[in-house]
Amino acid sequence: MAEKMALAKAINESLRRALDTDPKVVVMGEDVGKLGGVFRVTDGLQKDFGESRVIDTPLAESGIVGTAIGLALRGYRPVVEIQFDGFVFPAYDQIVTQLAKMHARALGKVKMPVVVRIPYGGGIGAVEHHSESPEALFAHVAGLKIVSPSNASDAYWMMQQAVQSDDPVIFFEPKRRYWDKGEVDTEAIPGPLHKARVVREGTDLTLAAYGPMVKLCQEVADAAAEEGRSLEVLDLRSVSPIDFDAIQASVEKTRRLVVVHEAPVFFGSGAEIAARITERCFYHLEAPVLRVGGYHAPYPPARLEESYLPDLDRVLDAVDRSLAY
Hints:
Blueprint: E1 2-6, H1 7-21, E2 25-29, H2 45-49, E3 54-56, H3 61-73, E4 77-81, H4 92-99, H5 102-105, E5 115-120, H6 135-139, E6 145-147, H7 152-164, E7 169-174, E8 181-185, E9 197-200, E10 205-209, H8 213-225, E11 231-235, E12 238-240, H9 244-254, E13 257-264, H10 269-280, E14 290-294, H11 305-308, H12 312-323
Parallel strand pairs: 2-3, 2-4, 4-5, 5-7, 6-7, 10-11, 10-13, 13-14
Antiparallel strand pairs: 1-8, 6-12, 9-11
Helix pairs in contact: 1-7, 3-4, 8-12, 9-10
């Protein structure tokens, strides 16, 4: 039966199920135990599963991921939390030179079933290192799966699939959506982890997004509908791999594409999507693929973040420009 819950609660319930189902699953991170995480995503897990399964670690991100790699080599399935997006970089070396490479280095004989949870993105009034979107930095590295849910149901099921994966998964959690509620059917049969989903049908233009920007794109589609424009909203769900077939199918129908993400447009994931879709859909496109995202600048102070992040007007402006061709 479906239950309405917040996205953060859905992740909590998913981790609870994983811990209960598989004794080899362990949860690790700074303050994930007694405190339940700064966003309370892991609240109550240590109380119910003990300090040997839900482990409060030192403030040492490189050590957290390095320990998880060692545990994975011994058959465990660690789920590690990086407290904020900008704190991941002390662990970047471990992730890209060890975690991502171990399977290939061992000629397929070694599995790396590690999930790295990263609350990411802005919209909560925080400062730099607490509001950034570094997904493209990881998507550039072969050997890592990169996913980001946009709603509670996906948060629940994508976490289940990430924990069960034998490959390392970077699980980007849109912190501004932690408190958004949605229906979660814990007995459903989930679709493929890296499959995009059309969340709103349309005919005039495709909006492609993932994580925190999917809700914004739905609001843009609502606003455009008042002007008689029909926009299709595609939730990509996965940044690596990207479901280019789903994007292509949508673009062949609408003939226009705007990609939206919080990360800076410069060298962002939207650039790869724009290049691939231009190659695949050259004779279908009636306008160039446009991108809307953050600026190529350090994340600003909290009072300026609304000017930095994509909003309704900026996305609508891109829609207008595309439809004007």
